Amino acid sequence: xxxxxxxxxxxxxxxxxxxxxxxxxxxxxxxxxxxxxxxxxxxxxxxxxxxxxxxxxxxxxxxxxxxxxxxxxxxxxxxxxxxxxxxxxxxxxxxxxxxxxxxxxxxxxxxxxxxxxxxxxxxxxxxxxxxxxxxxxxxxxxxxxxxxxxxxxxxxxxxxxxxxxxxxxxxxxxxxxxxxxxxxxxxxxxx
Length: 191
Prior knowledge:
One of its GO terms (molecular function) is acyltransferase activity, transferring groups other than amino-acyl groups. The chain is of the alpha+beta class. It has helices at 8-17, 31-43, 53-58, 60-71, 107-113, 129-143, 158-166; strands spanning 21-24, 83-90, 94-102, 116-120, 148-154, 170-176, 183-190.
């Protein structure tokens, strides 16, 4: 058994601290909290939403429709991998973070990105939300019957490495992104 996997008491403790924190599918109900989170990332110099910023601010319904299309596995989308998006919400009003699950891997996803990506808004970091977000996202990945998932993180992102390890991540190897030269750590988690 992986020593870094949270034991039952650690999971129970984390879940008790996160009682009002849930993983939801994106909806118009969270348009303002989502925009607040996007703005916070920008204020901290992070660009997770740079490419969709305009759509999020001026046509949120179109943004949601795009997320729904991305999650579908249809003949029209044969060249792309379905991606399910989830939002971590506290007290039914504050967006804490987001996660995405790639339903399958291309060779590029396998080498550099993995099945799951996640991020926590800057002011909510180092409070256990990342660990909880990944835990809940892994539960969603089980529903896709993936068997195991691959996760990656920047080698310098010690916090993300710890989050992955706490959720059962077993280090596989490192690879270097050819475009940026960034070293990526690769982990596997059995579901």
